[in-house]
Amino acid sequence: MARYLLAFDFDHTLIDANSDVYIIKLAPNGELPAEIKDLYKDTGWIEYMGQIFKYLHKNGSKQSDILSCMSEIPLTEGMRELLDFTSKAGCFEHIIISDSNSVFINHILATHSLSVVMAGIFTNPAEFNDAGCLTLQGYHSQDWCSLSTVNMCKGHILKNFIDMKRKSGIEYASVLYVGDGYNDLCPSLELRPQDFVFPRVGFKLHKLITKMSKENKPVDMSALTARIKQWESGLDILETVKSFSLQ
Ligand SMILES: [Mg+2]
C-alpha cells in the first residue's frame, strides 16, 4: 500500500488562532509593555516569547491559567473531520512542524481528544519551571536558511524526517504540507512534483505563493514544484486525501 505523509503547521492551520498571540490576553489589560514588544526584532522569537511568559508569571498567571487559556482555542473548521478520516485510512502518517511550543501543542491536542497519532511533533521545547513560569528553548539554531527564523527552519525539519523514513524503508508516494505562514514557504520548496502544498486562503503563505506565481518573488518560482491546492477548511483538504485512500 502506498504511504502518504501529512505535515501540518499548527497556529492558524490545525488551530484557528496563533497560540503565541492568544496567550497575551492573560497580560494585564491584555497588553504587553513596550519593552517586551520591541524585543522580537532585537533578540528573536525565543527570547521574545520567554520574556512574555516571565511577564505573565510576574503578573500572577499560573500554570493552570495558561493551560486553560490554550484550551479555549478551537480547531480550525474541518480539521477534526480530516484527521478522523486520515487516522482511520491506514495509509497516512502525521507530523506537526510548528514555531509554537511543546506545552501549548500537547495541551491543545489533548483538550480536543483527537484520535490521530502524531509520528512527530517538531517544535520549540517548553516546560514549566519549579516556580511555575513557562520556559522555552529554540528547536535548533540555524544559519543556512534566510526564509526561516534562527530557531526553526521547517524545510530542514521536513527534509530530515523524510530522509530518516527513507532510511527505514518508507518512501512516501506523496507528501502533503498544510500551512498558512511565511515560515511555511521553506518546507513548501522542499516538496517534489508528486507532493502537495496546501496554503490557507487569505493568509501569508497563500499570498506569497500567489505573488510567486505572478512575479517570481521572493524566490525563483521554479523552486516550487509541488501541486498547489488552496484551502479554507479542512474539508477542502479531505477532498484531496480521499482520492489517495482509494488508490
Ligand atoms: Mg501558522
Notes on the structure:
By secondary structure, this protein is an alpha/beta fold. The chain has eleven helices and eight strands. The strands form two sheets. Strands 3-2-1-6-7-8 form a six-stranded parallel sheet, sandwiched between helices. It has a two-stranded antiparallel sheet with strand order 4-5. Helix 6 runs parallel beside helix 11 (234-245). The mean pLDDT is 94. Magnesium ion binds next to loops.
Core attributes:
alpha/beta, globular, 247 residues, Rossmann fold, HAD_sf
- Tell me the name of the CATH class of the largest domain: Alpha Beta
Main sheet specs: 6 strands, parallel
How much helix, percentage-wise, in residues?
Answer: 40-55%
Number of helices: 11
CATH superfamily (homologous) name of the largest domain? HAD superfamily/HAD-like
How many domains, as an integer? Answer: 2
Radius of gyration: 18 Å
Low-confidence stretches: none
CATH architecture of the largest domain: 3-Layer(aba) Sandwich
Distance between the termini: 9 Å
Ligands, deduplicated: magnesium ion
Number of E-state strands: 8
Shape: globular
Keywords: Hydrolase, Magnesium, Metal-binding
Protein name: Pyridoxal phosphate phosphatase PHOSPHO2
Binding site for Mg(2+): 9, 11, 180
Binding site for substrate: 20, 99
